[in-house]
Design a protein that fits this description.
23% helix; Pseudouridine synthase; 7 helices; four-stranded antiparallel beta sheet; 3 domains; Structural Genomics Hypothetical 15.5 Kd Protein In mrcA-pckA Intergenic Region, Chain A
Amino acid sequence: MDTSLNKYISDSGFCSRREADKYIDDCRVTINGRDAHKGNRVNPGDDVRIDGEPLKKKKAPVYIMLNKPKGVTCTTDTKDKTNIIDYVNYKTRIFPIGRLDKLSEGLIFLTNDGDIVNKILRAGNGHEKEYIVTVDKPIDHHFIDQMRNGVKILGTITKSCFVKQEGNLKFRIILTQGLNRQIRRMCETLGFRVTSLKRIRIMNFSLNGIAPGKWRYFSPVEISTINEMLQHSSKTDDGESMGE
């Protein structure tokens, strides 16, 4: 039975489907020695290579939580010297689930399980991400109300969300969307610049106990929990991702 090319690459544990599409667009993928294109199908016995290297079979599932520091880029492309893969330096191939902006910090998952990536990234699943954000000038109830009720960015209005003031320059926000650089764009639209952004929670999983720049494995109980939370989620990526 044939499989879509980006799913085939994702299922191998090399990267997510979205990253796979980028490799295909950059002409870094071949099927049986010929340049691959989006929409190609892979049949049993086909020779699929990335940068001339054959895809290896997926190893045992790996699930990691990282407290990402500023300056690390959430990409699998090792041509980017600040890429998250070299930073973690794990012994086998893993990739990040979603993204955090290079200047942002906090919780991000890494894995070699393509199915779980696609389930989490699907915006329609409504999984919560919680952030602590600091901006460049004092905020007031008017700012908080605007952030809560939706801000026009990227040609759309952001979904209503939980926002709570935590200080003169600081607020807490919980998103179920993953629009590109969403929090930064929302603040910029309202005339504020983000000076610090930290993701402290994804779904039921928090940063507690993970020092900045460090990572740990999911516990067996946590793996069971996340699989239970995702069991009714679609594997289809609908165009948004678990960004900030």
